[in-house]
């Protein structure tokens, strides 16, 4: 097998792509954060969703969003840190009540690592679902080795809030989705979009590639989850938002369509989910199957 050398420069430009899940506030990206974002904008990135994992990092997301209209902030408590709910609750509630956030998360369940006990994770997850409902915001979900438990909680929640928050707006996204096509369809059915991370480009990831190739475009997002999970050909380097272009290109090749098709659909899906103006917002409305359940 021939191994391609990692390129020295950023990806070729792919205008309009949106990174649906990033943590550029992370320690790994702090030393040269300005350069990281410059590279991303130069690659044609049209937007990035910055996601917090506790009160402090959610505040950092909000700071980033206030400095650039292309940046949008999500506030929440990560399942790894769920055991600190009592310590974080008041701060996060006040922060979200102050406004400026487009979603709640990342929350969910991680029964692989169990950095927090499962009961604490479920409690923090339920609390954030209530918080999202109260503020009419979508949720950003992390699920690892907790497929059925996660689905059950979200299905019950979707019965309370409905499948849409209004105007074709889904109720959340499965960040870094790692399940199969059948489960993805079940999530789409209850109003959660499927976000494809850089690991889809790894040769061994047949299941992820099947999901990215098969689910309807109206239900698809692309993300980096930077600084982790760097796509080929940058694998093993630190991940950054510019690299979401490689993931979008790879997904387009899997589906046999031009990259622009995937870029446009995923950008519109992300913008609609988090309720900010999308790429075609200024143009005429057209019905090309935005119902993610179709
Ligand atoms: Zn994340």
Short description:
By secondary structure, the protein is α/β, with parallel strands linked by helices. It is built from nine helices and ten strands. The termini are far apart.
How does this model look, in words?
With 294 residues, the protein is α/β, with parallel strands linked by helices. The chain has a single domain, classed as Metal-dependent hydrolases (TIM Barrel), CATH 3.20.20.140. The chain is built from nine helices and ten strands. An eight-stranded parallel sheet has the order 1-2-3-4-5-8-9-10, sandwiched between helices. α3 packs parallel to α4 (118-135). The termini are far apart. Residues 282-289 have low confidence and may be disordered. The chain binds zinc ion. Zinc ion (ZN) is lined by residues 21, 23, 51, 106, 175, 225.
Annotation keywords:
294 residues, 16% strand, binds zinc ion, 39% helix, globular, TIM Barrel, 10 strands, eight-stranded parallel beta sheet, 9 helices, alpha/beta
Instruction: Give the cofactors and ligands.
Output: zinc ion
Give the SSE order as H and E letters.
EHEHEHEHEHEEEHEHEHH
What is the subunit organization of this protein?
single chain
The main sheet orders its strands as: 1-2-3-4-5-8-9-10
Rg (CA only) = 18 Å
